[in-house]
Amino acid sequence: MAEEEKKARPAEETPEGAPAGAQDAQTETDLSAALSKAIEAEAAAEARAKELEDKAAGLEAKLSLAVQQYSRLQADFDNFRRRTRAGEAEAKDKMTADIVKEFLPVLDNFGLALAHMSKDEAGAAYVKGFEMLRRQLEKVIADLGVTEIAAEGAAFDPHFHEAVMQAPAPDKEDDTVAMVFQKGYVLKDRVIRPAKVQVVHNS
C-alpha cells in the first residue's frame, strides 16, 4: 500500500511548477549565454576603441603634416613678400637715380651760369632769379632722397670720389680731396654720380 502511494505521488515541483533540476539547467544556460554576449560585446567595444584610436592617430598625423606644410607655406610667402618689397624698392630707387642723373647737368649749368653772371655786373639783375631756380631744383632732388657727397677736405674714397688729377699741397695730408671739379650725389647707398676731385699727392 505504501509503495502504491509512493508511485502515485508526483515528483517535487518548483514554485513555478517546473522541476528543480530543469530550472537550474535553464539558469546556467541563460547565464552562459549572457556571459558570452558580454564577452562578445566587450571584444567588439575593444575592437571599436582600437579602430577609433588608430583613426585618431592617423588624423593627428595628418594634422601635424598639414601644420608643418602651412608653416612652410607661410614662411615661403613671407620670404616672397619681403623679396617683392625689396625688389620694388630697388626698382624705385634705380628709376629715381636714373631720372635725377639726367637733371644733374642742368644743376651743374645753373652753378656755372651763376658763377659767370656774378662776375658780370650786367647780369646782376638775373642772379637772384637763377639762384632761386637752382634752389628749387636742389629741393626737388633732396626731396627724392638724394644727398650731395662730402668731398672737399675729406679723405679720398674711390667708392664716392673720382680722381681726375693729383697736386701737391704741403698744408694737407696725402690722399685728401683738395678741390671739387664736379659735385657727386648719392641716393641712399646708391652712387648716382661720383664727385670729380683733385687729390693731394705730396711725395
Notable traits:
203 residues, alpha+beta, Nucleotide Exchange Factor Grpe, Chain A, domain 2, three-stranded antiparallel beta sheet, 14% strand, rod-shaped, disordered N terminus
Give me the secondary-structure topology.
Layout: H1 2-8, H2 20-119, H3 124-143, E1 146-148, E2 161-167, E3 177-182, E4 185-187, E5 190-193, E6 195-200
Parallel strand pairs: 2-6
Antiparallel strand pairs: 1-4, 3-6, 4-5
Helix pairs in contact: 2-3
Q: Would you mind describing this structure in some detail?
A:
- The chain starts with a helix and ends with a strand.
- The radius of gyration is 52 Å and the shape is rod-shaped.
- A 3-stranded antiparallel sheet has the order 1-4-5. The chain has a 3-stranded mixed sheet with strand order 2-6-3, with no helix packed on it.
- The chain has helices spanning 2-8, 20-119, 124-143; strands spanning 146-148, 161-167, 177-182, 185-187, 190-193, 195-200.
- The protein has a domain at 147-203: Roll (Nucleotide Exchange Factor Grpe, Chain A, domain 2), CATH 2.30.22.
- The chain contains 3 helices and 6 strands; from the N terminus they run αααββββββ.
- The protein has 203 residues and is α+β, with helices and mostly antiparallel strands.
